Automatic annotation (TrEMBL):
The lineage of its organism: Eukaryota, Fungi, Dikarya, Ascomycota, Pezizomycotina. It holds the Pfam family AA_permease_2. GO terms for molecular function: transmembrane transporter activity. This is Amino acid transporter. GO terms for cellular component: membrane. The chain crosses the membrane at residues 44-68, 80-99, 131-159, 171-189, 196-218, 238-259, 280-302, 328-349, 381-401, 407-429, 450-471, 483-502. It is a multi-pass membrane protein. It is found in: Membrane.
Length: 519
């Protein structure tokens, strides 16, 4: 039996080495082809860094800690507990579905390339539309990190100086200041990646353990009935329990998005066909477990719910009631900001690669300019500057809306889930089709007979979540508390349609799926 096991492991190792050898040949061909479009990226990300990249990028329990005020007024504890379970399973199904496609074609363009490849017809149209939606989704994802950190900074200032009255433009300035660091840091991202990912992963886990132990040991206990049976639907103006529960899902579904971030680094990941799918699935599962465990702990140790709900950043009062110390509370909340800030570097890097790939396929106006890769830094410098400019512009939303923080959270969640839906839908149709002339070129990771069922369940989950994302979190709705996520996503879709009509149908090139090695 031991001998058989050794043979099996040797065979697996040989298969992965063969993938790496073929990948190297493929990279040389692609590099030669891409020189005319501005250059190519190089592979330098190993397996551990690929795992850590997605693991830290999601920073699920930290993001949930900073945003669970949405659920306190809509859905309450029941929405957080059962929503965490739903989000964990649902997002895992979505990640598994996309991981199968990543195994076939681990490409930086990811969703828009797969939509173009698997759409039954109008491939160029769906590819371009998907490219705009995915690019917009990731630009919005970039805004969520500085929004979260700025919200923490303002919350701590109010906590330590109650007389301080925050102005909306203060948050915008803080977001601009926070954006400078990952923008400059990405110039040397290749050199600091391993260290950054290692430190981030350690902090992500250690702070999680320390936070849970502290709350469990020091805080007063809530009742089990409060945690599992309290469904809040009489605070925000939404009186229907189902609607309140659905809106409250934003707290637990938003942090688990973004697992496709490592996909957009595919051209820089060694043995990407094996490692990228694994990274996606592992990061989602681990973050889902950590998020559920942390939020369950918070609900059992939340203390005086009225005091917590009244705070601009409720997690501050959770720690303060548990520790009774302002210094300890500051330390714990700063921990959250540190991980979210480290995650910002990953989001920035992933987004710059996505826009670079879209420009390389002539999806963006002035594509030749944005497809440029700096020959020394080996990174898409121009798209990095584009993202920085977009973040500064989007940060201005905060000046015009008192609930802009809601938009910074719901926008990326809504747009990302939409970007996940279409490639899964097209692959599902292709799976069931008996008339397509060519078989699906599966990669090392394939779902087999379970594939259609997993794809269908993933699509059902996405549709259910997308329904609630555009809802305003409070009634009555006015210009200040309006949720602008839906209108903005709609505006992007209309803009993409106009781009297709004006020049996109002539400019955009159908991405050619890479030739799959014989595994």
């Amino acid at each position: 039996m031991a001998g058989d096991k050794d043979i099996e492991l040797t065979a697996q190792a040989g298969e992965i080495d063969d993938i790496a050898a073929r990948e190297a040949i493929e990279d040389e061909r692609i590099k030669t082809e891409q020189q005319q479009t501005g250059g190519a990226l190089e592979r330098y990300i190993n397996f551990l860094s690929a795992i850590n990249f997605g693991f830290i990028l999601q920073c699920s329990w930290e993001a949930a800690a900073v945003t669970f005020q949405f659920s306190l007024s809509n859905g309450g504890p029941a929405s957080i507990v059962y929503g965490s379970i739903l989000a964990g399973f649902g997002t895992s199904l979505v990640a598994i579905s996309l991981a199968e496609m990543a195994s076939m074609d681990p490409t930086v363009g990811a969703q828009y390339r797969w939509s173009a490849a698997f759409a039954p017809r109008w491939n160029r149209f769906f590819g371009l539309m998907q490219g705009w939606i995915t690019s917009f989704a990731w630009i919005c994802s970039c805004t969520s990190n500085p929004a979260l950190v700025s919200n923490i900074i303002v919350g701590l200032v109010i906590f330590n100086n109650p007389e301080y009255v925050p102005q909306r433009w203060h948050v915008t300035l803080i977001m601009w200041a926070i954006t400078i660091f990952p923008f400059l840091g990405n110039f040397w991202f290749r050199k600091v990646l391993n260290t950054l990912e290692a430190v981030g992963a350690i902090c992500h886990v250690v702070f999680f353990i320390v936070s849970i132990i502290t709350l469990v040991v020091l805080a007063e206990r809530s009742t089990t009935d409060f945690v599992f049976k309290t469904l809040t639907h009489d605070v925000s103006g939404w009186t229907n329990p189902t609607v309140a529960f659905g809106i409250g899902l934003l707290t637990v579904t938003y942090p688990l998005t973004g697992f496709d971030g490592v996909l957009h680094m595919s051209d820089e990941v060694k043995k990407a066909r094996v490692r990228v799918p694994r990274s996606m699935i592992i990061s989602v599962v681990l973050n889902a477990v950590m998020q559920f465990s942390y939020m369950l702990t918070v609900l059992y140790t939340i203390g005086d719910i009225d005091t917590v709900a009244a705070d601009p950043l409720p997690i501050i009062q959770v720690y303060y009631q548990a520790t009774g110390s302002k210094s300890a509370t500051n330390l714990f909340v700063v921990m959250l900001a540190i991980i979210i800030f480290v995650s910002f570097f990953n989001v920035f890097a992933s987004d710059s690669r996505l826009l670079w790939a879209f420009a390389r396929d002539n999806g963006l106006p002035f594509s030749k300019f944005f497809a440029y890769v700096h020959p020394t830094l080996k990174m898409p410098l121009n798209t990095l500057m584009l993202i920085g400019a977009c973040l500064c512009i989007l940060a201005l939303i905060n000046i015009g809306s008192s609930t802009a923080f809601n938009a910074f959270i719901s926008l990326p969640a809504l747009a990302l889930y939409i970007s996940y839906f279409f490639p899964i839908f097209f692959l599902f149709i292709r799976r069931l089709s008996r008339s397509h002339p060519a078989p699906i070129a599966w990669g090392p990771f394939k779902l087999g007979r379970l594939g259609p069922f997993i794809n269908l369940a993933a699509m059902c989950y996405i549709i259910f979540i997308v329904i609630w994302m555009p809802f305003p979190t409070a009634l009555p709705v006015d210009g200040l508390n309006m949720n602008y996520a839906g209108p903005l996503v709609g505006a992007v879709i209309v803009g993409a349609l106009l781009d297709w009509i004006i020049s996109g149908r002539k400019r955009f090139q159908i991405p050619v799926v890479r030739q799959r090695p014989d595994f």
